[in-house]
Amino acid sequence: MDSFAALRRMMVDCQLRTYDITDRAVLAAADTVPREAFLPDTLSHLAYLDQSVPLPGTGRALMTPMVVIRMIQTLALQPGEAALEYGGGTGYGAAVMASMGALATLWEPDADAAALAGPALKRADAGAVALAVKRPADHSFDVILVGGACETGPDELFPLLRDGGRLIAVEGFGRAARVRLYQKTGKIVSGRPVFDAAAPVLAEFRKAPAFVF
Predict the structure, then answer these.
(1) Is residue 146 a contact partner of residue 89, using CB atoms and an 8 Å limit?
(2) Of 6, 16, 136, 153, which sits most exposed with the smallest number of CB within 10 A?
(3) Which helix (H) or strand (E) holds 5?
(4) pLDDT band at 176 (very low <50, low <70, confident <90, very high)
(5) Cα 161 from Cα 186, distance rounded (Å)
(6) Edge to edge, what strands does the sheet with 161-171 contain?
(7) Taking a C-beta distance cutoff of 8 angstroms, is the pair 21, 70 a contact?
(8) Contact at 8 Å (CB) between 74 and 20?
């Protein structure tokens, strides 16, 4: 077992299993997908730490392993479902969902992050993940994973969901942040909080600065 494989197994046993992540398919995917491939070589030693890692030269970050994997577990992803990771930087979440049998797409509007994503997915042997830099068609996905925190609601992503689809996102910032799971029924989207967590905020979902006298 190489050093990264050993670190990956330690991540699964010491971080994920202790954070209410019990689904076998999710744990197997986390133990298979090489998280280090989604960081530059100079930062690969940070891949399995319990922290988010900013992607140099971009406005994105690799989310904390516990948070992104538990979010994927909460989506209750089924093999063959169409899955989107939005704003996921280099696409680790999309690769995990593809490893679980999803038809995964990474939509990354940050051009600098998207430029890193293609080589990262190739290094991770995750070539089945489609990479989109433009908005996909509405009603295209069964599940959407938002790859960062939203200070405002992710409403603009709801049209991408199919009827019965689920979207999960970290909402808020710092200690006030919570993960919320949404489900679409017809034209109605309802959400509920599922657990507390934090993630780097996506620039496009920041609140506008309030005017102060």
Answers:
(1) no
(2) 6
(3) helix 3-10
(4) confident
(5) 10
(6) 130-132, 103-107, 82-86, 141-150, 161-171, 178-185, 188-196
(7) yes
(8) no
